[in-house]
Each structure stands twice: as C-alpha cells, then as structure tokens.
Design a protein that fits this description.
Shape: elongated
Order of helices and strands: HHHHEHEEEHEHEHEEEHEHEHEEHHE
Number of strands: 14
Oligomer: single chain
Length: 374
C-alpha cells in the first residue's frame, strides 16, 4: 500500500533539503565524505546524477584543474631541479676566464653533457667537501707545447690539455686553482715544500719521480725526435746521433736517454753527444729551429703539435716509450690525490677525457685509464 501523497511530498522535501545542504559543503569535505564510505559514494553518485548541471561541471572542472595543477607543479619541481643542476654546470663553465697574468683560473669549462656525469660529480663534491671553495696553487713550466703553453692571443694566459683537464676536475670537486709558472726542475722541490699543491706540466710519472711524489696518471706518452726542417743530419735513430748536438730541458726524462746513448757512442769508439741544457722545452725547440742544436726529444704529440706551428723544424724518428703523463701531488696529500683520481675517472667514463686530449692533438690511443702511482 502506497503512503499518502502528503507523506511522499514530505519525504521529497527532506531529500531535496539534504541534497542542498550537501552541495553547500566545502568541496574538500565532500570529497572526504565520498571517499570514506560506500554510502558516501552512493550519495556522491546521486548528487552527480541529480545535479548534472553547472554545479557538477564546476566541481569537475575544479577537481580536474586542481589535479592538473598538482601534477604540473610536481613536474615543474623535478624539471627545475634537473635544470638547476645543468644550469649550474653551464654557469660555472661560462664563468671560466682561464689563466690570467698570475695564472688565475676558475673552475669551469664545458660540462660533461650527461646527467650521469653531473650526478657523479655531485657525489664526488660531497665526498671531498673539505676541498670545496679552496684555491689551489698549481705549478707549471709552460713551453711551446700542447700540455701547457702561453696563449698566442694573450701570452699572460696558459692554455693546453692540462689546464683544460684541471678546469674540469676543479669544477667537478668544487675548488679553484691558480697556475704558477716555474722552471721545470724546480716543480718537485716546490711541491715537497708545500709552495704548490699540484704539478701540471706534461710530467712523466717515472719510477724515480714516484719515489718523491705521487701521480694521477692519465695519458700514455710516445717519444719522438724534433730535428731541423729537411733533417740535414739524416738522424733516423738514437744510434745515428753520435757526434751531434742535442738540446735538452733540465729535469726531463729525455736527458737520461741522451746520456745513455752518449756512453754507447763512446764505447763504440764514436764521438759522443754534446748536450745543451735549457730551463724549458720552448728554449730547447728554439735552439733546434735556429740551428744551434741538431735534435730535441719530447712526446710525439708535442713534436707533431710544435712542428705544425714552426716552419723550421719537423718530426724526426720515433722512440719506443712506456712513459705515462700524470698530475703530481705531494705524498702526504692523499685526499687531493684521490679527489683528482676519482674526478679523472669520471671524465674518462663520460668521454670528456677523450674529447680534451684529442682536441689538443693527442691520439685517442694515448688515453690511459686514470690510475694512481705513488
């Protein structure tokens, strides 16, 4: 039996009133009510079906807009974080001014170009936090080479493969450095006396030197001779150098090669080798170009580089060598040694090491997996 019409009208009135009250409730409270109970879900469905107009559309638009804003906000935050990391590297790189009159340099250079490298450097910066913000004095003996040489456009600046590598290393760890010019044979004593923190001067990490200081090795060396254009003395091997005048830079490993050959020449009853000693490679190269010396020994990459720039000299014969270039660090300074090693490893893995050494005329085959020699 159906209830009286009056009763039905009364029920409808209460339902409509309840719906009006619920629609007046704040959207967030309504959503909580809806999600907390199946009854609420039913009421919500009833409301959507019943309202099916501007209120439903407004609620839907508001909810969708809110969700979109939240999603967009989260996405923007992640993107901003990623962008900040990349921008930081780019900003640091753009601030690189290279070496100045005193050899001042700021960390920077081009970034590694990969998120992995950026995150790797972030981890290294945290690992070696005590180095952050420090300015390290780096000793170098610039010459006519692609290791460390005066910039042709500004002789007060020093450019080359090692300044570029150090710029990347310093940027990765978070320190700055200043290049300090010195005679080559004074670099190790200066490092041991703590006048400098690092040696970056195309130095071979020889066994003898490793007894005095530690090295982070990074590139193989291939020896070659530099002779006058046309090779007028027809020098084709070390055995053919008996009786010639050789230019040498004080403190370099090539001196031992000449000394050994000089003894061999004399033992064979041939004239010995006359040695002209100079404080730097550039002076020794000039002696060959001017005809005061017949030969100079250096790294093959350097020999090719300077021969392409100086018309009066050329690359002579090659010499088999097992030498490896390295950055020198004082033996007690193990933290700096490990920091340079780890960041050089990062450069090698990111491809930056290859990019830099080939840019300066060295061969990709000369890359040496960064390793400490102490």
């Amino acid at each position: 039996m159906s209830p009286p019409a009056e009763s039905r009208h009364g029920v409808y009135t209460w339902v409509i009133l309840a719906m009006y009250i619920l629609l007046s409730i704040n959207e967030r409270i309504l959503m909580k009510l809806i999600t907390r109970s199946a009854l609420g879900a039913g009421v919500g469905l009833l409301l959507v079906v019943s309202a099916c107009g501007s209120n439903g559309s407004a609620a839907g638009s508001s909810s969708t807009g809110s969700a979109a804003a939240t999603g967009s906000g989260a996405g923007s935050t992640v993107a901003a974080s990623s962008s900040a990391a990349i921008t930081s590297g780019s900003a640091t790189g753009s601030s690189d001014t290279g070496s100045s009159g005193t050899g001042a340099s700021t960390p920077g250079g081009s970034s590694s170009g990969s998120a992995g490298a950026a995150s790797g450097c972030a981890a290294l910066a945290a690992k070696y936090a005590s180095l952050k913000g420090k300015n390290l004095i780096v000793g170098t003996s610039p010459g006519a080479s692609n290791y460390d040489a005066p910039d042709p456009k500004d002789p007060n600046k020093i450019v080359g493969v090692e300044p570029d590598l150090l710029t990347e290393v310093s940027s990765c760890i978070g320190f700055t450095y200043t290049l300090q010019k010195q005679d080559f044979n004074g670099l190790i004593p200066a490092l041991q006396a703590k006048h400098i923190s690092v040696i970056a001067s195309g130095m071979y990490a020889s066994d003898e030197r490793a007894k005095q200081i530690s090295f982070v090795q990074y590139m193989k060396a291939g020896e070659a001779s530099v002779v006058a254009k046309g090779n007028p003395k027809n020098l084709t091997s070390m055995e053919s150098t008996c009786g010639v005048t050789a230019a040498e830079a004080v403190g370099t490993v090539e001196n031992a090669i000449f000394e050994k050959q000089d003894k061999a020449c004399k033992a064979a009853g041939k004239p010995g080798i006359t040695l002209l000693s100079f404080q730097g490679n550039d002076q020794a190269v000039t002696a060959v170009a001017q005809g005061r010396a017949d030969i100079f020994l250096t790294d093959s990459g350097v020999a090719s580089y300077i021969s392409a720039k100086l018309p009066k000299i050329q690359v002579g014969f090659p010499i088999v060598s097992d030498f490896v270039f390295g950055f020198g660090v004082a033996k007690p300074d193990t933290e700096l040694l490990n920091a340079i090693q780890d960041s050089m490893t990062e450069l090698n893995q990111s491809g930056k090491l290859k990019e830099i050494i080939t840019r300066w005329g060295f061969a990709e085959s000369q890359i040496y997996t960064p390793a400490i020699k102490a």
